């Protein structure tokens, strides 16, 4: 029996996991992959800090720093669903990359460490999801350890993040006394046995909360406490409202322990029931339905040299509508040129498989020879555009120069490619030129990655000299004003990659002063004429 386009698309769930580093994102991802039967790969997603399996040489830096810098896409099948997980970098210096990845997701899973609660990075990533209005599901992890009280955690989610929280299940005890999880809909308790704590999966058991054996196992004290909490939740807690979940106004909360694979299966089942399938997207040509027959996708990420084995550049494309077929021709909207999607790949951690077909909701990786840019649209027809990717203004600037002039060619290539990936913003100093560009980044750590990748992937040693500027603004091409800014000690005039004039400024007060004193209009983004 053949499956219709609609059925293919409605079986897809594409989401990203957001969390503060160390909350257990890798562990949860691994467990989710286990359900898809991808056991042999599970350990490689982002291997443990000590025995990490580097997907490419430069991830060595990531290993040393113990953070996740890259993001990749993983796909698995489970109970008739096709699940796409987008990995997002946990470190705040890479929030730009994270934001772009989230534009490709239809929902997000927010992972919280029960002992730490809502942490800084969770807040930032949450805000990004909220801006997109996608549904957010919360998994409170590490319940096998001593943590904050679940009521306090729910309260923290609501107060700190400003979203209503609805507990789908409820923990009974915590830490050494953690007895299990109570499902509020079915009344079943999934027991956290001593065997499970030691990793023995055969000791898993579930029973109804009214079952005397289960009650005895929980013990009177804990049972009383638990019942009071449930009464409180039922009386004073939020009401479950699926439509509000869809709008991202209420987050369903689940408790569990990813490390022990406890609460994860239940979470996955509920998530698959509640999370949205690929949604329609707004374009300049109106609403684009995912099941419309025309293939449309957009580039949300570009990455060079992902794998030492494949020194190539991959553009990640989120399919928004229709079906991709191997070898199909599409139009690249920015150049209006025809492109053949000859060997798109499905990216599963470091393994790649050539794809024969893919549907709206899926992520494909295509080889890119330097034509594609983030935000570009590939479609069967020309002319479709989506809302521009949000622009994150760089806040740190440095002049980057090569130690060995013989490596000039590789240096220019490296800088150019990293710019195209969106890893750095490159400006040209009017007096110096491409040999010593000014590079702007959002977070300092990006400079370290730049230095490392230029050495590792392009064989170039560079010097990175910080500049004192904190802001970049774009200016109209007005010779008199440009002259004033060039002469000022508070600013530096540069050209961006598209030859637009921009000015680096020491801080916002000096920017205001210059603007008022000389009547100069500053723009926070390149001016589109
Ligand atoms: P991240 O990707 O969000 O940074 O987190 P990751 O999964 O690497 O997990 C961070 C640490 O938290 C790891 O310990 C992991 O084993 C632990 N962890 C994850 N889930 C749970 C849980 O449910 N319960 C408990 N008790 N710990 C959990 P580590 O010591 O840093 O690494 P490892 O040496 O154990 O691999």
Automatic annotation (TrEMBL):
**Per the database record, which ranges form the Tr-type G domain?**
10-281
Superkingdom classification of source: Bacteria
Q: What is an example of a GO molecular function annotated in this UniProt entry? A: GTP binding
Q: Which UniProt keywords apply?
A: Cytoplasm, GTP-binding, Nucleotide-binding, Protein biosynthesis
Its localization reads: Cytoplasm
This entry carries the following GO cellular component terms, namely: cytosol
One of the GO biological process terms: regulation of translational termination
Q: What does this protein do?
A: Increases the formation of ribosomal termination complexes and stimulates activities of RF-1 and RF-2. It binds guanine nucleotides and has strong preference for UGA stop codons. It may interact directly with the ribosome. The stimulation of RF-1 and RF-2 is significantly reduced by GTP and GDP, but not by GMP.
Q: Give the UniProt family note.
A: Belongs to the TRAFAC class translation factor GTPase superfamily. Classic translation factor GTPase family. PrfC subfamily.
UniProt-recorded name of the protein: Peptide chain release factor 3
Organism, scientific name: Desulfitobacterium dehalogenans (strain ATCC 51507 / DSM 9161 / JW/IU-DC1)
């Amino acid at each position: 029996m053949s499956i219709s386009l609609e059925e293919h698309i409605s079986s897809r769930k594409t989401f990203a996991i957001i969390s503060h580093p160390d909350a257990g994102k890798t562990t949860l991802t691994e467990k989710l992959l286990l359900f898809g039967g991808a056991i042999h790969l599970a350990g490689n997603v982002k291997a443990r800090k000590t025995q990490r399996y580097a997907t490419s040489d430069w991830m060595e830096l990531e290993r040393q720093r113990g953070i996740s810098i890259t993001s990749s896409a993983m796909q698995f099948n489970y109970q008739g669903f096709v699940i796409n997980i987008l990995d997002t970098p946990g470190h705040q210096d890479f929030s730009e990359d994270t934001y772009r990845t989230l534009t490709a997701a239809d929902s997000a899973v927010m992972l919280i460490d029960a002992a730490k609660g809502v942490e800084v990075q969770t807040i930032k990533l949450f805000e990004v999801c909220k801006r997109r209005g996608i549904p957010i599901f919360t998994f409170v992890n590490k319940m096998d350890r001593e943590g904050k009280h679940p009521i306090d955690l729910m309260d923290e989610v609501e107060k700190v993040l400003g979203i209503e929280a609805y507990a789908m299940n409820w923990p009974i005890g915590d830490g050494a006394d953690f007895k299990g999880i109570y499902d509020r809909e079915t009344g079943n308790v999934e027991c956290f046995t001593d065997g499970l704590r030691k990793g023995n999966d055969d000791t898993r058991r579930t029973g109804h909360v009214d079952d005397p054996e289960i009650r005895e196992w929980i013990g009177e004290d804990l049972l009383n406490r638990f019942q009071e909490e449930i009464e409180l939740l039922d009386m004073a807690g939020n009401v479950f409202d699926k439509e509000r979940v869809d709008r991202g106004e209420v987050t369903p909360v689940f408790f569990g322990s990813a490390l022990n694979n406890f609460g994860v299966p239940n979470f996955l089942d509920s998530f698959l029931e509640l999370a949205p399938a690929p949604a329609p997207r707004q374009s300049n040509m109106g609403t684009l339905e995912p099941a419309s027959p025309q293939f449309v996708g957009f580039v949300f990420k570009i990455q060079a040299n992902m794998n030492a084995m494949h020194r190539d550049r991959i553009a990640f494309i989120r399919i928004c509508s229709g079906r991709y077929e191997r070898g199909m021709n599409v139009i690249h909207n920015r150049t209006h040129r025809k492109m053949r999607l000859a060997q798109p790949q499905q990216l599963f951690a470091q393994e790649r498989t050539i794809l024969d077909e893919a549907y709206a909701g899926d992520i494909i990786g295509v080889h890119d020879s330097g034509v594609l840019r983030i935000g570009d649209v590939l479609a069967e027809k020309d002319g479709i555009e989506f809302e521009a990717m949000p622009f994150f203004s760089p806040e740190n600037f440095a002049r980057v120069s090569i130690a060995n002039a013989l490596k000039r060619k590789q240096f220019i290539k490296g800088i150019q490619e990293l710019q195209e990936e969106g890893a750095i913003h490159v400006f040209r100093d009017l007096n110096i030129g491409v040999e010593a560009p000014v590079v702007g980044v959002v977070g300092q750590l990006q400079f370290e990655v730049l230095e490392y990748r230029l050495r590792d992937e392009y064989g170039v040693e560079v010097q990175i000299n910080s500049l004192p500027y904190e802001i970049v603004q774009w200016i109209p091409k007005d010779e008199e004003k440009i002259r004033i800014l060039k002469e000022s000690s508070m600013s530096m005039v540069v050209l961006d990659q598209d030859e637009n004039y921009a000015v680096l400024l020491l801080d916002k007060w000096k920017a205001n002063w210059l603007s008022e004193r000389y009547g100069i209009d500053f723009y926070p983004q390149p001016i589109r004429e």
